[in-house]
Design goal:
Elements: H1 3-45, E1 51-52, E2 63-67, H2 80-94, E3 100-104, H3 114-124, E4 132-135, H4 141-150, E5 156-161, H5 163-175, E6 179-184, H6 195-214, H7 254-266, H8 277-288, H9 311-319, H10 321-339
Parallel strand pairs: 1-6, 2-3, 2-5, 3-4, 5-6
Length: about 350
């Protein structure tokens, strides 16, 4: 064997090993992908325990989310999936299990409007029109569920559809912290392999990818929408809703308040304009003797209140009169200067 033949053999051997490695890797990825999809589908199916078929057993939620579908099949005949969903939603409302129905469906084409068709059918079934709320952007199950949480601000809700769609909706709701239950409408009889069955198989695969891998968001969101009498959330603000305390003035500090208290103590004892030395002396003499001398003339300006000074006031006037008056004058001047 020549040198060139040896190199060619070596190259073909290395290339063969490389192809085998790629084949093994692709097989491994396919196996993991299939396993992931299967486990994801089983995970979706496990949400069947949160669905109900009995009106008596389904818990109350203020809002029920009715998933949209066409009222007619492609052959022009009545779509039983649509009819049974309308029946289920109207029964829930009449039984008091929901107060409002959020009809969510596709409205991308001017000639096709699922929410309006559902509203018309619900009104015909006895549901008041004012208890029906439109969601025109429910293009997919994921869009309807996420919009119910982010746009219509629901924290708990009842899904209304057939069991297979309710399970997918509950799987999505679990990611977005939406507390939900499903009420299963009657499912029309169908063969094991049908158009709906095949469509649901691929829908579940896409649902798993949307939630776990792609983090898919609705095509349209928008501003919050109020349902019923519930108020919309207000924008965050650092200002209090109500004034919690009186408005503080510049002079409202501890020093000024202390001065004002001291003034209030000494002010009743402070010398007034009419408190002449003669009047104060007469008041002291009256308080020290039970009866005034007959020959002493009492000034008529001396009132009964002046003649009934307490013992504490007499002591202050006799021994600390000057000090008290000076202190009151000083505090008054300080107070005036602070206020200015």
């Amino acid at each position: 064997m020549s040198y060139s033949d040896l190199n060619e053999f070596k190259f073909s051997s290395d290339f063969s090993r490389f192809v085998k490695a790629i084949a093994y890797l692709c097989a491994l990825l396919c196996t993991l992908g299939i396993l992931f999809i299967v486990l994801g589908s089983f995970r979706i199916s496990s949400y069947a325990f949160k669905t109900y078929e009995s009106i008596e057993k389904v818990p109350y939620n203020r809002v029920g989310l009715l998933f949209g579908t066409s009222p007619l099949n492609s052959d022009g005949e009545t779509n039983e999936y649509f009819s049974y969903r309308i029946m289920a939603a109207s029964q829930l409302f009449k039984a008091g299990k929901i107060d409002y129905i959020l009809v969510s469906g596709d409205n991308q084409h001017p000639s096709y409007n699922e929410p309006r068709l559902m509203r018309k059918a619900l009104v015909k079934a006895g549901v008041p029109a004012e208890r029906i709320v439109f969601d025109f952007a429910g293009i997919r199950t994921l869009d309807s569920v996420v919009r119910a949480r982010k746009v219509f601000l629901q924290k708990s809700i009842t899904f209304i559809s057939q069991d297979f769609q309710n399970e997918r909706a509950l799987f999505i709701a679990d990611k977005y912290d939406l507390k939900a239950v499903g009420f299963n409408a009657i499912s029309p009889e169908r063969s094991f392999i049908s158009r709906i069955g095949i469509r649901e198989f691929f829908a579940r695969i896409m649902c798993v990818l949307d939630v776990y891998i792609l983090d898919t968001q609705p095509k349209f969101l928008g501003d919050p929408v109020k349902i019923g009498k519930s108020s919309l959330p207000k924008k965050l603000s650092s200002k209090p809703v109500k004034q919690t305390s009186p408005i503080k003035k510049i002079t409202d500090n501890a020093q000024v308040i202390a001065i004002q208290k001291r003034i209030a103590v000494y002010e009743p004892l402070a010398k007034k304009t009419t408190d002449s030395k003669r009047i104060l002396k007469a008041a002291l003499s009256i308080n020290n003797t039970d009866v005034a001398p007959a020959n002493e003339i009492v000034n008529p300006e001396v009132s009964i209140a002046d003649s009934m000074l307490s013992t504490q006031q007499n002591e202050l006037l006799s021994s600390q009169k000057d000090e008290a008056l000076d202190e009151a004058q000083k505090q008054a001047e300080e107070s005036i200067s602070v206020r200015e």
